[in-house]
Structure of Sulfite oxidase:
Amino acid sequence: METARIHRRHFLIGSASTAGAIAAAGVTGSSFPAFAAETKELPDYVSWKDADKLIMHTEQTLEMKRGAGGTSVITPNEEVYIRNNLPSPDESIVADRDAWEVSIEGVNDPRTLTVGELKNIGIETVATVLQCSGNGRGFYEHETSGSQWLTGAAGCILWSGVPVRKVVEELGGLADGGNFMTSTGGEQLPEGVEEKDIIVERSVPAEAMENAILAWEMNGDEMPLAHGGPLRMIVPGYYGINNVKYVKRVAFTEEETDAKIQASGYRVRPVGVDGAPDQPSMWEMQVKSWVTHPLKDSESGRVQIYGVAFGGDKPVEKVEVSLDGGESWQDASFIGPDLGRFAWRPFLLTADLEPGDYVITSRATDSDGNVQPESTEPNHRGYDYNGWDRLAVEVTVV
Amino acid sequence: METARIHRRHFLIGSASTAGAIAAAGVTGSSFPAFAAETKELPDYVSWKDADKLIMHTEQTLEMKRGAGGTSVITPNEEVYIRNNLPSPDESIVADRDAWEVSIEGVNDPRTLTVGELKNIGIETVATVLQCSGNGRGFYEHETSGSQWLTGAAGCILWSGVPVRKVVEELGGLADGGNFMTSTGGEQLPEGVEEKDIIVERSVPAEAMENAILAWEMNGDEMPLAHGGPLRMIVPGYYGINNVKYVKRVAFTEEETDAKIQASGYRVRPVGVDGAPDQPSMWEMQVKSWVTHPLKDSESGRVQIYGVAFGGDKPVEKVEVSLDGGESWQDASFIGPDLGRFAWRPFLLTADLEPGDYVITSRATDSDGNVQPESTEPNHRGYDYNGWDRLAVEVTVV
């Protein structure tokens, strides 16, 4: 959906001053250790995660620290962020993973299939960036509700499951009028609340089916319950919210669902404006990158500057690094294997740094020539800040 | 070293009967659940591993079950096999990872570098198959000492670290006469034993340096102590033994080390013959594949047959699957992203199976046209069985 991208590009602050960038960068660099110190004990349902690598905003929202994640392309499951709209279902749903059922509708031969049956239809593996719509919210200056994510509500993951297009083919193909692929989560809904106000149900354009998989595996392990096991809808290139967990229904529908999470939630809109179905939905991700090293003061001499870059729903083609807050740029190189257009790529620039103050940031370009902007204009919910100004880090070299 | 490959090819049993193949396959398929039942409590140093996915041969040798590992290309750290020649060093060596020292010798400016310093020289990420020389030993019919590995002393891993060639360049380049790259492990040696009889020190041809890295990261996580952290030599395409753990010295030497593990150990030799330096060393791996699903009886109808395939030190180009013990073959397709020439690739063949007995096996071909053989002639130590006959699984479809 180009509308979302154009909409956001229109929001750019063209006049962000370097001073502003430095100040914002200072917040990132300096507040980082403070955030780390606040780490609390992990809740039971994610007790297997690596607490040292995470920042816990709430019981349902955990972010990977900016310096975690390494340079190995994939993000270990223990470090992948958590953002659950509803509490995780009971562990009993992963006791017999193959028995989990998903109803497939809007096809010529609608059926309920078990995971065991899905495993017999086909297998595909795809690496994708999983990124929360609100990743970077903490960089906006306007007041926003929700977790103040910095860079860590994102990871790069290898998923394995059945291609949705193969399931559709198996069930006689799409019925007429299937404009959207609508996935429903299997969370237990609290009582006394209108279902459509609370249910996790998301629609994406039906063509997203071409790359989507119903996944039971995450980085080679059974899909953890906390990440949507036994079965999760993976829509490569789309924001995390569209990757519905514990998916119990996939329907090809004429209209988008009227669930609140779709109708008014996850809409890009000016500050102060209510959410509505005619606003761009948080579907395809946009080009983005950030530095993950160094984040702190450094000794002079040679410094390895690295981070991650991705194109959203397109391959990332180029990354540049600036040491002076965007005054000048140098081409970085990519590290390691290319896991495909939906994955991120670690990048590297080796620099010789004299003593002094640096504002280090990165700027990615996707294969269509879209360049990561200097700044991102405020939107009401503080979605996906991708401006290279505030993603910068301030480093003093001594 | 072509010698090793030619040597082993010369060992092929050309006359292995199909009946023999079926019998051997039966051992694999049927004994699998029995092995699984024998799983014991994991030793402390690998207590973080996934016991359900492992077979424990001894405290120092743990194998991944054939059905574990999934289809996501990489093997999760929790499932990667363990084969330690000596007990793991004390955990104190990973308390300050950046302080670990490695001495670099046989360069023009020899020096001892810390991991912290290495991290400033360069960064590269490479996916490799890590495979024990003895993987498949259990398929040989002759008596062999050592763990009776089946398929699971192997995994595919993303490593991140500094390219050895950059370290060499940093230290003024190779000194004259550096024919071999000799790496020494930092294990504490038991007292009262001749050092060269016990030390883990391995030489590989110096040109292996071109792809080698000194790695501090394994699948995005800090290198676990049990896998060689803080620092491990990774020699892509070479058997596990050459990927020296807790590496404390890398020397470019004129001769191979005279340590027993090199001079007489890990040599390919006829049964009953003593190990000697003129025999082929377990260096580059050979083309290999095996099916990981199905391993058990199956219902009739469509069955997804999958497994893993690799070319050793060359890319794998093709995999064929046979349902009749090698009488006929069908081309399989690869699943997911290609992580490079040293990685394995999951493969898939979808088959419609009528009720009956099947002997399912796979046969890989590397980019040089080397084809995985029908059988592997016995060698004294039972190294790397790669014959598609005994790697087969017997499946009854009802």
The first helix of chain A runs from residue 2 to 10. Residues 12 and 376 of chain A are 5 Å apart (CA to CA). The first strand of chain A starts at residue 54 and ends at 58. The two ends of chain A are 47 Å apart (CA to CA).
